[in-house]
Structure formats: structure tokens, C-alpha cells
Amino acid sequence: MELLTDEGIDQYAFRNTRAEGELLQSLARRTEREMDDPQMLTGRVEGRLLKLLVQLCRPRLIVEVGTFTGYSALSMAEGLGPEGRIVTCEIDPLAQQVAQEAFDASPHGRKIEIRMGPALETIRRLEDEIDLAFIDADKEHYPEYYEAILERTRPGGLLVLDNMLWSGKVLDPQEEIPRVLDALNRTIAADERVENVLLTVRDGVQLVRKR
Fold it and tell me: How far is CA 210 from CA 65, 73, 81, in A?
């Protein structure tokens, strides 16, 4: 992932965002050592943003598409009340193992349930309304995730979509993923069912509120 801002500015934001706890820092280091794509980790600035959004929204049900090693789920779980729960979707057994070990080591891990298998199937089986969703998985299927989750989100609920600027390649999309994300950004901006703001945090974060 290429930086969207000057590296000095990026590091300044990192230093001046309250540090995550040792468990999350350790998880970040393990992800760097053991995973093939460690850049997929959410990281401090976006992780603290997710925690803050959870604290503001006070959701009962969070759905996450793309667990990876569990950093984002644990960040959200820190801000979640005792009655809240997170259903997080994953297909990679190695990522699931690393994430579950991190959840087991955290006092907030009991709030999180990993569901293995295609995320769309998990979403469609949900019985309760979604209060907040975080989408950070295979980009080709973002439009399907957006529609499936929005349909099941309560009015006033929040969707957060990661990597929506794709290292700036959405400006002149020549490949499949930038084209998919550019089209979805345009769809969201014109969608009368929602309000949105596209933030230049990390690799681009869409905040979408269902009307």
C-alpha cells in the first residue's frame, strides 16, 4: 500500500494518536513476522478511529467482513459495551488461528465470534439488525457486501469501508480493483438511502450512515 500523504505527516499522525495497548502492539508485530501481507493490518490510526466510532455509536451488533489477524476486531471490541457483540467473517485458516489466539488473550475477546466461510452467506444468515459494519476484505466483492449489509442495517446505522482510495489509483482506474472501488464510491455518493463522507485516512475510509 502506497502512502497517500507525506510520510512525515503520516508518522506525525501516528505519534499523536493515543497508542493502542500492548496486546494490539504485539499482534501487529506478530502479523509483520508471520503473515504474507502484513500491510493489510489496520494499524494504530485507523484502529483508534474504529474504536472511537464504536464508542460514539454504541452498537449492539457489529459485522466485520475480513478478520485477518484480528487487530480491527479487537480495536472495535475495546469500545464495545458489555452487551455488544462482533461477528467477523474470514476464510483464511491461518489468519483465523492468529486472530483467535489474540481474542483469547484479551478481556474483550469474548465479544467476538469468528465465522468461517463466504461472508455473504454469513451476512444473509444474520437474524438481528446490524448497527455498525466494517468492510475490509476482497475488493472485487465490495459492491455485494455494501448492498447485503445496507439492507440489514438499522436506520442510523454506520458502514465503514476500507481501502476506498486504493493508493490513489481510483483517480485514473486502469485495473479491475480501482475500477470497482471508483464505481462504488460514485454509487455511495449518489445513493439517496445514505449520507457519506470519504476520508483520506490511511488508504481511504468511506463512512456511510443509513438514513
Answer: 18, 22, 22
